[in-house]
Amino acid sequence: MMEADDAYLSKVGGMASDEALVIETIIQVFTVILISPLYQGIYEKFKAFVEGRLGPSVLQPYYDIFKLIKKEVVVTENSSFLFIYSPYVIFGIYLLISFVIPVVYPSPIYLTPTVDFLGGALLFSLASFLKLIGSVESGSNFVALGVSRVLSFTFLSEATLITVFFGVALITGTNNPYITLKYVSQDISHYLQLDHLFITISFFMLWLFETGKLPIESSGLSEMGMIDDALLYEYSGKLLGIVKWSSYIKQYLLGSVLLNVFLFPWLLQTGPLGALLDIFIMFLKWIFLISISVIINTTLAKLRLFKVQDFLAVSFLLSILSIIIVILTG
Predict the structure, then answer these.
(1) Is the pLDDT higher at 292 or at 13?
(2) d(CA 55, CA 122)
(3) Where are the domains of the chain?
């Protein structure tokens, strides 16, 4: 593990050329920003196909974002500055996270040394907190109801996110996600360890909830199963477009960490040309993840709202069990 740390520090210290780092950084960050809506479009298309419908175009999320950005923003009289500016801050937080975790490229890029796994989890939590605060500052009773509903679940989801990353740090002896990726991918025995399997299942369950892939949420405003969409009720125009774009980026960031660090930590290439190839490799990985989530969403019966807490409690328990296993086995 010390050799891996030394290799990481050497690269960050300047062994790789500045030009290559710039190219690798640009490829990763712009892939996150530009490609993330595509995977939501593919998911909706796959889901429609399984359900026997034609479904929207895979490019529909792009059409929605561009249409909303061109529209006028309407703000209620009771809205505070947090309601207006929090979407921009949230987008910036997710943009920062795209610099520091292996979501496209498997080696460190610019800004990577500034945040470790736990820091990334705290940034995700900060973005979620700002989204809740900004939404409730609209002064809408409907949004307040949605926020209270979300808070009844997020105390478990945020705890799971932090304990998952804390468990990874215990397993690998480091908080660096790039070293974790290398640790898991280089030896199949590390991948098949019981603690790693538990933490992978826990993070996958968390991803299903955080991205709305559980068979419970509905975009209908009269649906009691609506969770995250209630937070967007008062947003319009450019602000709504930015919030939706941020949610697509969040889905991509969490899903890519799940794929690259936990579920399928192989095949990624290094170097500027390797970074371009990684875009295609990540596309194949995402098709695999989307297929699993579509099967879950279309084959399982819709959960009742109160069952979401049970689902998240199981996810949290698995992350705690993985930590206990690591401690007991040394």
Answers:
(1) 292
(2) 36
(3) 11-329
Under the banding of pLDDT at 50, 70 and 90, the label for residue 246 is very high
If one counts every other C-beta atom within 10 angstroms of the C-beta of residue 214, the result is 22
The tokens for 267 are: 């095949």
**pTM higher than the cut 0.85:** yes
Rounded to whole angstroms, the Cα distance separating 257 from 279 reads 14
Tokens 């468990």, located at residue: 167
- Helices 141-172 and 307-329: angle between axes, nearest 10 degrees: 20
- Length reported for the chain: 330
Which two tokens mark 43? 């998911």
Nearest Cα to 324, choosing from 118, 217, 170, 189?
170
Please, what's the largest Cα pairwise distance for the chain?
A: 59
Query: What are 83's two structure tokens?
Result: 């309601």
* Residue 48 burial class via C-beta count within 10 angstroms: exposed 0-12, middle 13-18, buried 19 and up: middle
Rg (CA), the chain: 20
